[in-house]
Design brief:
single chain; alpha/beta; TIM Barrel; 11 helices; 10 strands; binds NADP nicotinamide-adenine-dinucleotide phosphate
Length: 269
Amino acid sequence: MEWIQLENGVKMPKLGLGVWRSGDRTEQSVLWALEAGYRHIDTAAMYGNEDAVGRAIKKSGISREDIFVTTKLWTDDVRRGRAREALMESLARLGMDYVDLYLIHWPAEGYQKAWEDMTDLYHEGWCRAIGVANFEADHLDALQGVSDMKPLVDQFESHPGFANQAVLDAVLARHIVPVAYSPLGKGKDLAGNAVLAALARKYGKTPAQIVLRWELQRGLVVIPKSSNRERIRENTGIFDFKLRRKDMEAMNAMDTGTRLSADPHHLPF
Ligand SMILES: NC(=O)c1ccc[n+]([C@@H]2O[C@H](COP(=O)([O-])OP(=O)(O)OC[C@H]3O[C@@H](n4cnc5c(N)ncnc54)[C@H](OP(=O)(O)O)[C@@H]3O)[C@@H](O)[C@H]2O)c1
């Protein structure tokens, strides 16, 4: 496992397990991930599985402080000014007294007030770091001066079909740690892609490992979702090889600008 240091000194593993739509397999998936060496789990109030994440972490027997847990403030709670209440509800479901990272899930109306509240929650010790998700350059700029904190992390959509380079550049320029969600493009184009198949043969890796490695080399943390034991393990095999520059460029050329999730400037929820 490799780690990246946030600006406040907190260390975040560069690989995490995403659990969106893991459903009733969440608890087992988290247990398999911890067994395979993951120490970073990405959940959200909206995923409806914080309780299963908390149960798995307890069952694993691994110390709470050795696992990096992220959860997120849903849009309804941003709009209703409920950051404090929502975090307390998340902590109760997780069975924890702090999370490692608390994110504003989307830039819904009211996100500046939410940021002010999250800053208070951070200073009170309920979260070791705070950040945002789906924030673009203008959203990040709108947080300037709202509190004495800037986001430590921005989590946004990034995969070969939608590299999202402009947001990555904006985030890196602000010394914010970038996290790629849907890093595998939701698994849709992994098996049938000729570029990935050729690179997988060349490096003796799988297409998923090639894609995750490309994200790491672009400077992103990755949080692939799987509820399959073998694929959870497979996705850890990304720290023992390096893609050469021309292969990175071949991957960059796969970008078609096609989003799989909502446009942060036009929220449908
Ligand atoms: N902040 C946000 O707004 C936001 C939005 C979306 C996602 N996220 C976070 O990011 C995480 C990951 O994104 P995602 O779930 O959208 O998609 P993803 O991780 O890109 O892809 C997950 C899909 O790929 C499959 N898969 C996983 N490993 C594989 C492998 N080695 N080979 C082939 N297929 C593989 C999975 O199937 P199996 O389970 O069957 O293996 C699943 O169908 C989420 O779970 C969530 O935590 C955040």
